[in-house]
Amino acid sequence: MPSAEARAARATRRPAFGQRLASAMAEHGPLCVGIDPHPGLLAAWGLSDDVHGLRSFSLTVVEALAGRVAALKPQVALYERHGSRGLAVLEETLALCAAGHTLSIADAKRGDIGSTMAAYADAWLGEGSVLAADAVTLSPYLGYESLRPALDRAAFTGRGVFVLGLTSNPEGASVQHVGGAGSVAKGITDAVGAENAGARPFGSTGLVIGATVGGALEKLGIDLASTAAPILAPGLGAQGATGADMKASFGAFWPQVLGTSSRDVLKAGPDAAALRGAAEATRDSLL
Ligand SMILES: O=C(O)c1cc(=O)[nH]c(=O)n1[C@@H]1O[C@H](COP(=O)(O)O)[C@@H](O)[C@H]1O
Q1: Total domain count for the chain?
Q2: Is 109 a catalytic residue?
Q3: Whose Cα sits closest to atom 17 in ligand 1?
Q4: How far is the C-alpha of 259 from the C-alpha of 282, rounded, in Å?
Q5: 135 pairs with which residues across the strands?
Q6: What is the CATH number of the domain that holds 76?
Q7: Which ipTM was obtained for this model?
Q8: Measured in angstroms, how far is the CA atom of residue 109 from the centroid of ligand 1?
Q9: Can you tell me which family this protein belongs to (predicted)?
C-alpha cells in the first residue's frame, strides 16, 4: 500500500463503511436513491442530453436529498456516456454527497483479473482518488477472489463494496441459480459471509440481492443473516417490486436490507419538494 495513502487514511480515521451505513439507516430509514440521469429523464426535466443537463440533474438530486436518505447511488454508465466531462460531473456529484454528509455508492459494477482490479480499487476506493465513493458495486463473475484487491483496499480506507449476488434482472438466474443447493449465488454469499466474520450489525462487504428475486433465497437455501452483509436491493418501483414484495422475499433478513430506487423517485423531479416527497413515500413503504 503506498505510504502517502496510509498517512491519508490514518489522518481521515473514517469508521468502517458497515458501521457508517448502519448509522445512516437508523437515522434516515432503509432507502438509497439512485442517481440515474437517463436521456428520457433529462428530457422530462426540461434538460439537454449533454454534460450541462447531466450536471444540473445530478446537483438537483443531491441538493434535494442529501441528509434525508441513507445513501445516494450514482449510476456510472450514465456519466460515462458523456465522456471525460461526464466523469468530471460524477466527481463533483460524489464530492457534493460527501459535503452533504450522505453516503455515496458508485454503481460501477467493476470486476476483472486481480492485477486490473487493483487499478479499479485505486479509482473507486483509494484515499485521495477523485472518483472514490463510500462504496462501489462489484461483479464477482471472474471468480470471487479476483475481487481481493478491492476488498483489501476498502478495508484499508474504511470504504465498502456491494458484490452482485442475485441480481434484479430476469437473465441473472441463468448464471446465478446454476448448481441448485450449491448454486453460484450461494458460493458468493458464503464468501461474503467469511469476509464479514465477527462484524456487527454489518460488515463492509455488502451484497446486491434484487428486490425482484421472489422466493429465490429460500429456493437456493441462502441464509443472509449468517453473512452479516448489508443488502443493497434494487428493483423497487420501475422494475416492479413493492415494499410488501421485498418484505416477503427477505423475511427475517429485513433489518439488513437497504432498498434502492432510481427512476421511480427521479420521475418526480426536478422540483426539490416533489423529489423529497417521492423519496419519503418510497422510504415509508419500506418501514
Ligand atoms: O447494482 C445495482 O445497483 C443494480 C443491481 C441489480 O441487480 N439491478 C439493478 O437494477 N441495479 C441498478 O439499480 C438501478 C435501478 O434503477 P431503477 O430500476 O430505475 O430503480 C440501475 O442503476 C441498475 O443498474
Answers
A1: 1
A2: yes
A3: 262
A4: 9
A5: 105, 160
A6: 3.20.20.70
A7: 0.99
A8: 10
A9: Belongs to the OMP decarboxylase family. Type 2 subfamily.
